[in-house]
Write a structure and sequence with these properties.
The chain is α/β, with parallel strands linked by helices. It has one domain (5-254): Phosphoenolpyruvate-binding domains (TIM Barrel), CATH 3.20.20. Helix content is 46%, strand content 15%. It contains 12 helices and 8 strands. The chain has helices at 5-11, 28-36, 52-65, 78-86, 100-108, 134-143, 154-158, 160-164, 176-182, 192-208, 219-227, 238-254, and strands at 16-21, 40-44, 68-72, 91-94, 146-151, 171-174, 213-214, 232-237. The chain has an 8-stranded parallel beta sheet with strand order 6-5-4-3-2-1-8-7. β2, α3 and β3 (68-72) form a beta-alpha-beta unit.
């Protein structure tokens, strides 16, 4: 059965890097990300048009390439979380979290009993067609499924102590775009209000042994946040990286005399 290498690295205190997929429905992209050296691919079902069948194919390609598939569901619903896990996601990102009670319930969907409420519906590809006992499968998946909680609003930041106290969180992810909007400084990712709020949250995560994370739009911002203590870092997305590379190539070609 599959080990979650990204989760293992986080538990060892290491920093991991990923890139998002939001619109290009190509199974080659996870392979490319793996070849580039990313630890995980962040498959986004909140923004963009991916359906479950597309994500299932992208997950299979990720696993075959040796990169961890982490999926952001559209909202906190059992059916979305359970089905995404059942097609092979090794991590779930919960968006727009503000209420500790709702978070506790959502996290319970990640684990099989007695640790949680996940229903057992394991399909053969999920365990690589191994003939494994049910209790062994449940224990393995419980240990290798990663829970990531997003902080995107002032309300979430204000309730950070309550939210981080909910058992079962492996990492958090700051959504800097939505947080900047909520703080009244849209798009100002180095604004003191945003930086101070995020730095305070990083410190709270360190106290609880939770990996702090963020999803900046480019490598420059990502690097600055790594220097500030971030360890679960999603850098940009597939369409942005392609456009950036294409523009760079055209600029170099236009400069030829």
């Amino acid at each position: 059965m599959r080990d979650n290498r990204t989760l293992s690295r986080l538990r060892e205190g290491k920093t991991v890097f990923g890139c998002a997929m939001q619109c290009y429905r190509s199974a080659e992209i996870p392979r490319l990300f793996a070849a580039a050296g990313f630890d995980y691919v962040f498959l986004d079902m909140e923004h963009g048009g991916f359906n479950l069948e597309t994500v299932q194919d992208l997950i299979a390609a990720s696993v075959a390439a040796g990169i961890t598939p982490v999926v952001r569901v559209a909202e906190l619903l059992y059916s979305l979380v359970a089905r995404t896990l059942d097609v092979g996601a090794q991590g779930i990102v919960f968006p727009r979290v503000e209420d500790p009670g709702e978070l506790e319930e959502a996290l319970s969907w990640m684990k099989y009993p007695p640790a949680g409420k996940r229903g057992y519906g394991v399909i053969s590809p999920l365990v690589d067609y191994e003939n494994a006992a049910m209790d062994g499968v449940m224990a393995h998946l419980n240990a290798n499924t990663m829970a990531v909680v997003q902080f995107e609003t002032v309300a979430a930041i204000e309730r950070a102590d309550e939210l981080l106290a909910v058992p079962g969180i492996d990492a958090i992810m700051i959504g800097p775009a939505d947080l900047s909007v909520s703080l009244g400084v849209p798009g100002q990712f180095e604004h003191p209000k945003l930086v101070s709020a995020v730095e305070a949250l990083v410190a709270k995560c360190a106290q609880r042994g939770i990996a702090p994370g963020i999803h900046p739009r480019d490598a420059g911002l990502a690097r600055r946040w790594v220097e500030r203590g971030m360890r679960f870092v999603t850098c940009g997305n597939e369409h942005g990286i392609l456009l950036e590379g294409a523009r760079s190539a055209v600029a170099q070609l236009r400069g030829v005399r």
